[in-house]
Amino acid sequence: MVTELAPPRRSAVRRFWASTIGKKAVMAVTGVLLLAFVLAHMVGNLKTFLGAAELNHYAGWLRTIGEPVLRREWFLWLQRAVLLVALVLHVTAAVQLARRDLRARPVRYVHRRPRASFAVRTMRWGGATLAVFVVWHILDFTVGTVNRDFVAGDPYHNLVADFRVWWVNVIYLVALAMLGLHIHHGFTSAARTLGVARPRRERAIKILGSTTAVAVAGGYALVPVAIMTGLVH
Ligand code: HEM
């Protein structure tokens, strides 16, 4: 008697991750989480305009969140772990979806593959640029290895020292433009995936996405621009 072997059963989580909509949902949810951090970080950075004491006090407070239930910096490390997992999932899903997209066509193109749309290309290249920027940025302000005059525990000093150098401003302003474009396109995609973007709301979501993108890129840019122009010193 021949018994047919049942195909191996995959867990619901694996099936979800293997599906295109599952990966898109992971991208959308992790994107929202990363955006929440980006918004909070931007508001914190604006404390630069209130002076060294305010900004440094705020940076110190970040290390004491949750005390005395948590010990010093535990919250910070928890936040770092959550952000890292979110980022890895976001990037992995993006790369796998892009590959799936390329493989989706069963017949090879005779001449050349048509170019992906502008939005798709900016998401891919912009996303890769942002990943490199985040590594640079952590070496700049958290670890201090690429900052010319890093003083541990004095972010105000580190910001002023850094943004006096013209090419550092170029790095940051280019990264912020990429971040703006990424949010601009990503916002609508995430809203569609999460089922928020009903036809009636499409326009409102587009406006909200563009406004958030401009506010984030512009809000972050205020600090380097103010230091570069000598307004903050
Ligand atoms: C002009 C723009 C920006 C300025 C002035 C700035 C400033 C800073 C400073 C001073 C720190 C160190 C904070 C501390 O040690 O207390 C920091 C950390 C960090 N920033 Fe930014 N930032 C900017 C843009 C960004 C952007 C666009 C992102 C993400 C896309 C980002 C992500 C981070 C991360 C992940 C950390 C590390 C936090 C940690 O130590 O756990 N920053 N930033």
Shape: globular
Low-confidence stretches: none
* Total number of beta strands: 0
In the CATH hierarchy, the architecture is: Up-down Bundle
User: Would you tell me the structural class of the helices and strands?
Assistant: mainly alpha
CATH superfamily, by name, is Fumarate reductase/succinate dehydrogenase, transmembrane subunit
H-E string: HHHHHHHH
CA-CA gap between termini: 85 Å
Rounded to the nearest angstrom, the radius of gyration is 22 Å
- Which fold does the CATH topology refer to? 3 helical TM bundles of succinate and fumarate reductases
Bound heterogens, unique: protoporphyrin IX containing FE
The portion of residues assigned to helices is: 55-70%
The number of distinct helices, counting runs of at least 4 residues, comes to 8
Short description:
By secondary structure, the protein is mostly helical.
Describe the structure.
With 233 residues, the protein is an all-alpha fold. The protein has one domain: 3 helical TM bundles of succinate and fumarate reductases, CATH 1.20.1300. The protein has helices at residues 12-18, 20-45, 52-62, 74-103, 118-143, 155-162, 166-193, 202-228. The chain starts with 11 loop residues before the first helix and ends in a 5-residue tail after the last helix.
Main traits of this protein?
mainly alpha, 233 residues, 3 helical TM bundles of succinate and fumarate reductases, 8 helices
Helix-strand blueprint:
Blueprint: H1 12-18, H2 20-45, H3 52-62, H4 74-103, H5 118-143, H6 155-162, H7 166-193, H8 202-228
Helix pairs in contact: 1-2, 2-4, 2-7, 2-8, 5-7, 7-8
The structure holds protoporphyrin IX containing FE (HEM).
